[in-house]
From TrEMBL:
Interacts with tRNA. Its EC number is 2.1.1.221. It comes from Chrysochloris asiatica. Residues 19-41, 283-295, 309-329 have a biased composition (Basic and acidic residues). The lineage of its organism: Eukaryota, Metazoa, Chordata, Craniata, Vertebrata. It catalyses: guanosine(9) in tRNA + S-adenosyl-L-methionine = N(1)-methylguanosine(9) in tRNA + S-adenosyl-L-homocysteine + H(+). Keywords: Methyltransferase, S-adenosyl-L-methionine, Transferase. This is tRNA methyltransferase 10 homolog A. The gene is TRMT10A.
Amino acid sequence: MSSEMLPAFIETSNVERKQNLNEDIEESQKLKSGERFEPMSKRQMKKLIKQKQWEEQRELRKQKRKEKRKRKKLERQCQLESNSDGNDRKRVRRDVVRSTLRLIVDCSFDDLMLLKDVKKLHKQIQRCYAENRRALHPVQFYLTSHGGQLKKNMDENDKGWVNWKDIHIKPEHYTELIKKEDLIYLTSDSPNVLKELDDSKAYVIGGLVDHNHHKGLTYKQASDYGIEHAQLPLGNFVKMNSRKVLAVNHVFEIILEYLETRDWQEAFFTILPQRKGAVPTEKACESSSHDKKCTNFEGGSDSDCSEEEYSRNELDSAHEEEKPDKENSTDSTVNSVPH
């Protein structure tokens, strides 16, 4: 091979090499692209089918939403027409008559509770607030000694509490806000049984969830402060199969119900959970094994089914959603069984 032909041969070889390289690259790309078109798995196939069906049914879903809105609108109109007797919410709110009675949840027991019990108390307070806002005769609601774990928990889990309306949330103790002669502490240890509610008074509910570990604490506090005390007349009207434990919100709701009906028995049986097996005292006496004649324990009159029949009950604040089959429910240091 002459020296003149050598450069031409080298150039031709380089071109061929480049062509071969390009062909190899194209072939590898074809192989790779061919891998993407391999048969799909069953899961991928199902996913693709569902996606296709979802796209096809887009208009159908849109139509269903329109029909649902129309149906709800029609239902609301029918409800408003059927509530011509004044039971609809807007009409009821216009009929609200605010009570001058003050109802206080005393939160001064913060250091005696575990965090889990503080959280339960917080939920009960939320329920009290909601029920008072809906009541026909809402009370003057006070939350006193507000601070510590309770305030921290509310700040973290219920930041909207700062915008609550129709409630007085105070860091001060209730004795610093209200005259002592106007205060009545609701405690089960009190020998005094309420017969009526005085709208000029301020009733205190102990905000303590302690699993009945601090018996007599609220009664002692009331006595130490020289405050009048009493218990709700639960034992005069109700016999319960389960432990006589009421949550803070139950006491609160019973008082709201009584302000509307002025009937203790109706208030108790409207609010008390069914799981407590509450029955009127006269029926409980009739079904007793002794089959003795029983008269109502009213006005201090003697009775075969006297208050001794009811065990001492520390109605300390209980979790609103306590289970009926658990006897270690949270207790409330408020209210209400004669003993």
